[in-house]
Amino acid sequence: MDEAYRAALACLPRMNPLALPGLLRLAGGAGEMWEILQAGGERARALVGEEKAAMWKDHCRRTEPSRVLSGLGAKGIRVIAPGQASFPPLLAAIYDPPALLFIMGGDIPTDSPCVAVVGARKASSYGRWAAETLGEGLARRGVVVVSGAAYGADGHAHQGCLKAGGFTMAVLGCGVDQVYPPEHAGLFGRIASSGCLISEYPPGDGPLPWRFPHRNRIIAGLSHAVVVVEASEKSGALITADMALEEGREVMAVPGPIGSSLSRGANALIQKGAKLVMGVEDICEELPSACPPLARFPARTGGGEEPSARERECMKLLRGEPRSLDWLASRLGEPPGELMACLTAMSLKGWVTGEAGGRYRLLCEPSCEADKPVQ
Fold it and tell me: Nearest Cα to 174, choosing from 195, 192, 149?
């Protein structure tokens, strides 16, 4: 019954979800809070002010909390709250956990590593590709991908995870029944079918600018690690990274061109000590439970990407032992700078990894001989 009271309280007109946890503590619980508001009087006015006390008194007397909960269920929306087995322990442990979460889609996994992949809304083609590649690579290792379903890096991180058949969670700055941005309607549908949509805002609440920074604490709170792909100096992704640091979570970043404004935030994180990410293995090394390594490339029909001819040549040279960039460049007859771009792409795909001394090591073999096409 507690979740019914919480849902009914969260759905009160003009209720601030950020204030709700404090109100519940002052009242002694959700049921007690509902009774206080229903009765009206001095205590209600002391807790919420005269205007809201009067408004909510009438509303609570006309509303049955169990009907609110059943009405949400009829729309395919569930409610979970701290203290329930289904509520993620990682999120419950943050400084200011939400009073409840509205969920559309599957249950939030509580026994799998979770990684947030976030970045610029106006991401470059490189940023979009990197986010999608990391999302796909993490999903192929059984990692849950968390992001905010926004334009740019967020949306591509979800798409990469879905491409690999993984579970992805989108934390929204509006109700789970709202689609924002509207161009992501198809993506929202796929996430709800293969993952879940999450919000602390009740159904019907539209996107407001102030809600997005606050929802970032939930993205960070759900995650063992936060990876920033591209971010300007004032990016919301950096807010997520700061919140993750405050909660003792791992913060990592994908490096970008030094002349790009979209890379300044991510590069600054690396300067300050965030782990530099060149591939999914760099991320998995920091997770509390081991990620299964990629033993083979997936079949093309499974959504995997075929190595290019140049990538295959690199793989052949790396089969025996780790090799340096200069060694590879001399064998392939390519300038080291151009080859470095190829190796970075292979690292992000999880095919090779960098080691101490500037050497590169092959992580996985294709599903058939490297000099034959992948079927």
Answer: 149
Residue type, 358: G
Percentage of the chain modeled with pLDDT above 70: 92
Count of CA atoms in the C-beta half-sphere (13 A) of 344: 15
**Two structure tokens written together for 230:** 């591209």
What tens digit of pLDDT does each residue of 336-356 get? 877 887 887 787 777 887 776
**127/343 Cα distance (integer angstroms):** 16
Contacts of 231 (CB under 8 A, 6+ apart): 118, 119, 120, 237, 238, 241, 253, 262, 264, 265, 266, 269
For 321-330, the CB contacts below 8 A with 24+ separation are 321/361, 322/355, 322/359, 322/360, 322/361, 323/359, 323/360, 324/357, 324/358, 324/359, 324/360, 325/358, 325/360, 328/360
| Tokens read off for 274 | 């965030």
107's tokens: 């249950």
- Beta partners for 276? 253
Token look-up 């990197």 returns 130
Instruction: Provide the pairing of β-strand 323-324 with 359-362.
Output: antiparallel
* 105-284 maps to CATH 1.10.3720.10: no
DSSP-derived secondary structure for 321-347: S-EEHHHHHHHHT--HHHHHHHHHHHH
Looking at residue 31, its amino acid is G
- Between CA 178 and CA 97 the distance in angstroms is 22
Tell me: cis bond preceding 181? Omega within 30 of 0 counts.
Answer: yes
Q: Which residues pair with residue 199 across a beta bridge?
A: 102
Q: What is the pLDDT of residues 44-103, one digit of tens each?
A: 999 999 999 999 999 999 999 999 999 999 999 999 999 999 999 999 999 999 999 999
Query: Domain 300-362 belongs to what topology?
Result: Arc Repressor Mutant, subunit A (1.10.10)
Question: What is the value of pTM for the model shown?
Answer: 0.79
